Amino acid sequence: MKYFCVVMLCVLSLVSCEKDPKQDKGDSAYIGGEVINPSNNYVVLLKANSVIDTMTLDANNRFLYKLETLSSGLYTFSHGGEIQMVLLEPNDSIMFRLNTKDFDESLVFTGKGAKKNNYLVDLFLNGEAEDKMILGFSQLPVEEFENKLDSLREIKLNDLREFITKQSTSELFNHLAESNINYDYYLSKEVYPFVNYANSERKNFESLSDNFYDYRNHINYNDSVLVGYFPYASFLKHHFENLALTEHFKHSNDSVFSKQSLDYNLIRLDLIDSLMTNDNVKNSLLISAAIEFVSNNKDVDNYDAILNSFVAKSTNARHKDYVSKIVSSLKDLKPGNPLPDVKVFDIFNNELNLRFVLGNKPCVIFFWSQTNMMHAQECHKKVNELKLKYPEITFIGINANNDNKDVWIKTLKKYNFETPKEYLFKNPSEAKQALAIYPINKVIIVGKKGLIENAHANMFSINFEEELLGVLNQ
What we know:
Strand order of the largest sheet: 10-9-13-12-11-14-15
Distance between the termini: 39 Å
Number of helices: 16
Strand content: 15-25%
Largest sheet: 7 strands, mixed
Mean pLDDT: 87
Number of strands: 15
Structural class: alpha+beta
Shape: globular
């Protein structure tokens, strides 16, 4: 549930990462910190996906930065591809300490304003742990599921009330913390019909009580304070998926949820457009939905319908240009076509054409990003297993988000990734567009003749090995 939020931030950074042109005038605040085992020598501070500044670490891997005219709210700080959020309010003086080997779990704030941020980080981390428990709840009949979920929510709200009483917190913090709890709760109810294994999604929907979704009366679709906040962004994504599927079932014979359905995805875009008025949130949801569809759907004939709907609804010119280019790239990645011309570096700093490194064996090209090291480790582990089963296939790993060779080599060594077939894009933004790399877990299968077999594969799919055998048997 939490992963989507990181993905959304990364997608937006591809098309919207620039200096914040202005900040509301107000009181100042300080933020500083120490990074243990740094991946590079800087920390980036952002607000609403716009870069505020890049702060250089000193010889002791520390920094201190003053925001002269503070705009109170949630800020994001990024280091080595990892991200986390911090709440900054007037006269705060917040220091953090983290270890890149355990980024989120090691993060601790100190100084004025630290307690509220430690509380929010704990909510985030506890929420990740609770996801597995709630998945277990989700296999129960609906009444039992609701009872357990309600109890869990009430415990968290009681803890928050106690914290607010002791710390005399601001209205902004109270709103963020309560929203975190409530939108996590709402999200769990939104995904229940999709993760309950008892029946098809249609039957699960039909089994819900009339008041199951009563909390929707309390949804603020355009809460400017929560723009970019992980729990809010994740909830809205799944909420619109749920609403769209409900509408889709009204005039479809489908009984199982399919993200490949053109009708379902057009409804999803329409609903986002009709219910959202905050352009930042609306455009984020629209681009996420559009790219998700075209990146996972093999039917090229459906791309233009989604693109036209998206372009008509989005108000972000850069988003429109980005999705248009992605659609164009995906059309070029049809089975039977050669790979586009993409330049990469190997570990010896040689510049090569990606076509050149394929050789004359079938290839699996996978991608990884330092914004999600968990996925990077999982896909390398999976590749090592597949190498043993299919020695006739070449597996090629490409770091898709980094243009710093030293950091890339350091990461390969740090995580013990095998290096003979590891590469780095010469120009990540152009390469990611040409190869339409979204989501990051997409895999491209190339046949013996260097022609594309499938540009939308997923090595974690139950059908992936069947695809490999099909390519080997040609």
